[in-house]
UniProtKB/TrEMBL annotation:
A GO molecular function held by the record: histone H4K20 methyltransferase activity
Origin species: Chrysotila carterae (Marine alga)
Start and end residues of each SET domain: 73-213
A Pfam family the protein falls into: SET
Gene3D superfamilies for this protein: SET domain (2.170.270.10)
Identification of the protein by name: SET domain-containing protein
GO cellular component, one term: polytene chromosome
Length: 224
């Protein structure tokens, strides 16, 4: 969430399918909404990959997929100067409007200690499940930076680094906040819930920002 470098840590395993997009474009019609959705995804992928300078096809494809849901919520993922990618309003969001919910992998304090504290593979903490988690992320090119972790409760965290389980809210940047974050350890469905609410009226074109808090930053981090 902090820098372009951290955003580009995702893998580079998926190729661009421009030829497939052209084939879909020639065959899609209003009678095939699923194909139109695929065409939208392909077009978004090409725009993000080519126009926005995201060279990593794996990340570009995920951003394109997330942008479909983001557009429905009235926002879009786009480059943010000095911060990599960010989230921008497509329309006005009035004060107290719920903009979106944070999503990701649920982790316990033990998971955090084993997977993100140094050194890795600490005896007594590191398990075969942790090894599978780590190798699976490396295989898919997913980073293990810990920069997308949100603490919900003392023993409950949401990790939004893996694009397979996250959504567009992982690209919300730190800055002078126009959003505030709310959380519940147990929502109505019994699962943790973290959501973002507009602090004020947000106009179309504005970047959506929230305050990560002092605990997020390391001594050598430059807060922008």
């Amino acid at each position: 969430m902090l820098s372009e470098q951290s955003r580009m840590k995702q893998g580079s395993r998926l190729p661009a399918h421009s030829a497939g997009c052209r084939r879909l474009q020639s065959s899609c019609s209003h009678r095939y909404p699923i194909l139109l959705s695929v065409l939208h995804l392909c077009t978004s992928f090409q725009q993000i990959h080519a126009l926005h300078g995201v060279q990593d096809p794996y990340l570009a494809l995920h951003i394109a997929r997330m942008n479909i849901a983001a557009n429905t919520a009235g926002v879009r993922i786009a480059p943010s100067p000095g911060k990599g990618m960010g989230v921008f309003a497509l329309r006005q969001h009035t004060q107290e409007f719920v903009v979106g919910e944070y999503a990701g992998e649920f982790l316990s304090q033990r998971d955090i200690d084993a997977r993100y504290e140094n050194p890795l593979r600490t005896p007594g903490l590191w398990t075969p499940e942790d090894e599978w988690w780590y190798e699976n992320r490396v295989k898919r090119g997913v980073g293990c930076t810990g920069a997308y972790i949100f603490k919900v409760d003392d023993d409950l965290y949401i990790d939004g680094e893996d694009c397979d389980t996250a959504n567009w809210t992982r690209f919300l940047n730190h800055g002078e906040p126009n959003l505030r974050v709310k959380s519940l350890a147990k929502g109505l469905d019994g699962k943790p819930r973290v959501w973002f609410v507009a602090l004020r009226d947000i106009e179309a074109g504005e970047e959506l920002l929230w305050d990560y808090g002092e605990s997020y930053w390391k001594e050598d981090d430059v807060v922008v």
